[in-house]
């Protein structure tokens, strides 16, 4: 209606029409012809597409996944949206106008056989139905008018339903944005999986090691109760810290949020991590860990954590040495433990520990290496600061 009103003013100014509500059919269709381009121009605004998609999903019976989400990206998507908007308004204006005008006209035509005054009016003269039996032809003619109106409305709806997915569906830019969104979601889930693997896996290994050591000490003659007390304290600290990390990760998963890069413990929590790993783990730090950037500090902590987990699983309680050097432009991490007398039992499909460490370092531009060297198993990582 707003576009038609503007078109009526324009036609009235330049064509001498009869105003907003008057004028012949030529004036009305002239206003219609002026209003359609105006509708197409306004439909080029990006936010037109969400409004049009909402209407099409409600009215056209088309599955929601066939439509694009969000504002139109790029001129190609805007042009398709403008095509839909113009088609929708143009066809809707014709059907609406016919729905307003035709039913009263059909009722008047159907009343011709029963009203001499109507037959004597201009309507009766126009139809020429002033004799029997032709006057009764007005009734089926009126019914046919209403059926034609219903058919036109149904055909228009079917046309719009067929064109809606093509004109309002996703274009190349929308498909690319959806692919990037899926990739980001997959990366977030992979990051969450790494966090859970490292934190929970290390906690279970550390708790198992401490509990086993405490049991052996209690079963020995003259048990060292102080050692048992330290082991139980380490178990308590480890489980409390891990439960907090697990709650944080699961809370993000429940809310559907991404795992933030900078969230989680860093090198400032390294001493507590080593203390919880048992009395046979030694830590040597060179430099100031507080000077390491947050992202690097967080990943370095996880690398040390995974190194301790591997040592607890495969070193058989042997002493473990952790060396951290942050004095240069790189953060250097070395985790060493003596090679066990028997090689550890390998998993059928390999573990996720060492690949996870390599992936963490690679994301920050670093390198890792792991393997036997000089009678010890050595895990080494270098990460640029």
Automatic annotation (TrEMBL):
This is histidine kinase. One of its GO terms (molecular function) is kinase activity. Signal peptide: none annotated. The keyword Transmembrane helix applies. PANTHER family: NITRATE/NITRITE SENSOR PROTEIN NARX-RELATED, NITRATE_NITRITE SENSOR PROTEIN NARQ. CDD domains: HATPase_UhpB-NarQ-NarX-like. Keywords: ATP-binding, Kinase, Membrane, Nucleotide-binding, Phosphoprotein, Transferase, Transmembrane, Transmembrane helix, Two-component regulatory system. Its EC number is 2.7.13.3. It catalyses: ATP + protein L-histidine = ADP + protein N-phospho-L-histidine. Residues 189-256 form the Signal transduction histidine kinase subgroup 3 dimerisation and phosphoacceptor domain. InterPro entries: HATPase_C_sf (IPR036890), Sensor_HK_TwoCompSys (IPR050482), Sig_transdc_His_kin_sub3_dim/P (IPR011712). SUPFAM superfamilies: ATPase domain of HSP90 chaperone/DNA topoisomerase II/histidine kinase. The chain crosses the membrane at residues 29-47, 87-114, 134-161.
């Amino acid at each position: 209606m707003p576009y038609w009103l503007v078109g009526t003013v324009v036609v009235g100014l330049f064509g001498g029409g009869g105003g907003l509500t008057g004028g012949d059919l030529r004036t009305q269709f002239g206003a219609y012809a002026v209003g359609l381009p105006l509708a197409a121009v306004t439909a080029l605004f990006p936010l037109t597409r969400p409004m049009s998609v909402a209407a099409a999903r409600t009215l056209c019976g088309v599955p929601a996944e066939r439509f694009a989400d969000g504002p139109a990206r790029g001129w190609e998507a805007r042009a398709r949206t403008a095509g839909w908007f113009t088609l929708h308004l143009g066809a809707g204006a014709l059907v609406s106008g016919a729905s307003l005008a035709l039913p009263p006209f059909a009722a008047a035509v159907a009343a011709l056989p029963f009203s001499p005054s109507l037959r004597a009016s201009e309507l009766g003269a126009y139809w020429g139905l002033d004799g029997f039996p032709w006057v009764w032809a007005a009734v089926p003619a009126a019914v046919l008018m209403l059926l034609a109106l219903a058919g036109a409305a149904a055909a228009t709806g079917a046309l719009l339903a067929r064109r809606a997915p093509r004109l309002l569906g996703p274009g190349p830019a929308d498909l690319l944005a959806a692919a990037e969104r899926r990739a980001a979601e997959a990366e977030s889930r992979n990051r969450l999986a790494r966090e859970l693997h490292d934190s929970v896996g290390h906690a279970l290994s550390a708790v198992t090691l401490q509990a086993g050591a405490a049991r052996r000490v209690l079963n020995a003659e003259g048990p060292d109760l102080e050692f048992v007390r330290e082991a139980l304290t380490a178990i308590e600290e480890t489980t409390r810290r891990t439960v907090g990390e697990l709650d944080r990760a699961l809370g993000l998963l429940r809310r559907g949020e991404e795992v933030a890069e900078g969230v989680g413990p860093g090198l400032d929590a390294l001493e507590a991590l080593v203390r919880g790993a048992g009395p046979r783990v030694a830590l040597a730090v060179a430099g100031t860990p507080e000077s390491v950037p947050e992202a690097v500090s967080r990943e370095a902590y996880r690398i040390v954590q995974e190194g301790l987990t591997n040592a607890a699983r495969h070193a058989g309680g042997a002493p473990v040495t952790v060396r951290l050097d942050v004095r240069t432009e790189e953060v250097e991490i070395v985790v060493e433990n003596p090679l066990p007398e028997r090689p550890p039992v390998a998993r059928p499909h390999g573990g996720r520990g060492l690949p996870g460490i390599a992936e963490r370092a690679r994301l920050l531009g670093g390198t890792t290496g792991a393997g036997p060297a000089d009678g010890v198993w050595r895990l080494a990582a270098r990460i640029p600061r």
